[in-house]
């Protein structure tokens, strides 16, 4: 569809518009920078953006990657593709009250494709895609900045002209090497921001394509406006910020296409000036295009809201403490302080942290707090820029500053707490798109300095130095994102008051078996945040394993008191109470955990162990059966069922359970061992031998496997083989219970047989 302009007066106005555009000052005239052909400029940007983050290609899954990828069932083939449209980013149902409502099905789909092609959870493929996406986005930035800084003009053949090749290259390089982008590129979960940015830019470029005149002199293409709306919708399906491109397209249309002076327009609106009727916004179809953008945006938001189902997500105070402050003044002043921190990360991206919550940034509660200076500085700069953008007599300056501020502020609005509460304090990933505005303002500022400077080369060298520093910082920060240990430890110097940082360092140490060091960090996390129930739970677990049961009980009891629906803490409390032989309390704790988490196989498993200790065999078997129904691969529950049935003489039932378990988990050597014991007692020696040998092949250093196989051969009459496996068992474990006695019995029997033979 093409909107046809028949009005002769408007056609004349159009020609005048192009003549005026050509007379505008050229930003490149004052910029002392490299001039490269478009192709080479894009190659340079692609190469440098690749070098910045290349060392993250072989990193691990870190931080949120575990929940969004490894534990996300939506990535697996057994989950229907259709479920992705009803689940959030983490694989939970959007209708659930616990869902974060982060609706990014297209991002999850790319994770699923990564998983499918890699044949499992191998992080290299995930990282490579992120790096490639950032390179593509950086290359697209050359075109985007050439439009934003140089204006939108086409040749007689309909080819877009780059009127600011030097400025657009500088701005694209600034974007490509900005260290604040490391979280999006080196952290796999940042794929959402990268995909969103890709379609965000494609939407903008598509909108620009709508104004390419054809031979018939048509002013704009409705088709490309609609394509831009669709691409904006796709951007939002990658991450919520994507919807903001529709607003930016409208701003671009007003400022660049229609050359509207905002201050003059506001004056005319206030004074109801009749000259508005002759304004370009009616003649050039601006209202029509803005109506299309608004209708498209409203439809997208309506569909998004309907899919969410149960309203906005519920966050906790530790996620975003300012949003829970009772005082409107405290909320407002802290929100503005957060804005200033985001601005500082764009200006000086040296202190970077994977998480800024949990006390990392203490609340400002009084105007006497020195941090108020940061707010004053932020608004002083913003107001100055806004005044220049509105009041400057230089139309070129007005346009660039307004576009810079627009791209800086509008994509940030969903993270601003203005419309709804967000689940973070500061997040480096959310300023991936706003950094476009920063690069515009930086480049324009550089052009103004170049215009005034006598030694322009020194200024160019200084900017080149900034780029090199940023490249170095990107490489350093990317290496920190390669593993959780480096990532978490890097945050200790940036956010020493952040309880979550200490918790994550402790968890990483505990996973590596360094419990003593983990205890230190868990204790510090609890000290910094006395209501940090997850730190209490993990600390209680370690103390339980170290047999420090009374302190473990105190911590776990406090955790469930603070958060009564914390199922994991209830289960761990039950384990501690069981160890303290307070069986009734333990049983009650287990059932409370199951009450708060209906599908909790590990809790059923521990409940079964409690019942087994109390000789309530039927209840134990039922609990373990529940565990295997909820989690068919729960090897420990299957094993305990087999062993209990074996010990109580129910060999036929034990054999049936063992065979059922091995069908579900065919490569589990512990199940092979348990079933082999049962078959041996049932005198099914050949089948028992085969399972023992298979278990030994899978785990050759298990002394008990060799010892029990020796017992089987002993019973079976294969005394030489029995002797061989007794000796292997004793070599692996000289203190193996019963094995030495059985071996001595066998030796005596062999000696007797030798005497008889002699």
Automatic annotation (TrEMBL):
Metabolic or biological pathway, per its Swiss-Prot or TrEMBL entry:
Protein modification; protein glycosylation
Task: For this UniProt record, give its keywords in alphabetical order, as a comma-separated list.
Answer: Endoplasmic reticulum, Membrane, Repeat, TPR repeat, Transferase, Transmembrane, Transmembrane helix
Q: Name the Gene Ontology molecular function terms of this record.
A: dolichyl-phosphate-mannose-protein mannosyltransferase activity
Per UniProt, subcellular location reads as: Endoplasmic reticulum; Membrane
Which PANTHER family does the annotation name?
A: PROTEIN O-MANNOSYL-TRANSFERASE TMTC4, PTHR44227
List this protein's GO terms for biological process: endoplasmic reticulum unfolded protein response
Gene3D superfamilies to which the protein is assigned, alphabetical: Tetratricopeptide repeat domain
Entry-linked InterPro entries: O-mannosyl-transferase_TMTC, TMTC_DUF1736, TPR-like_helical_dom_sf, TPR_rpt
**Protein name per the record:** dolichyl-phosphate-mannose--protein mannosyltransferase
Q: What is its EC number?
A: 2.4.1.109
Gene expressing this chain? Tmtc4
At the top level, the lineage of the source is Eukaryota
Provide the DUF1736 domain boundaries: 311-383
User: Kind of enzyme, top EC level?
Assistant: transferase
Chain ranges passing through the membrane: 33-54, 131-151, 188-208, 220-237, 243-266, 286-305, 372-391, 403-424, 430-449, 458-476
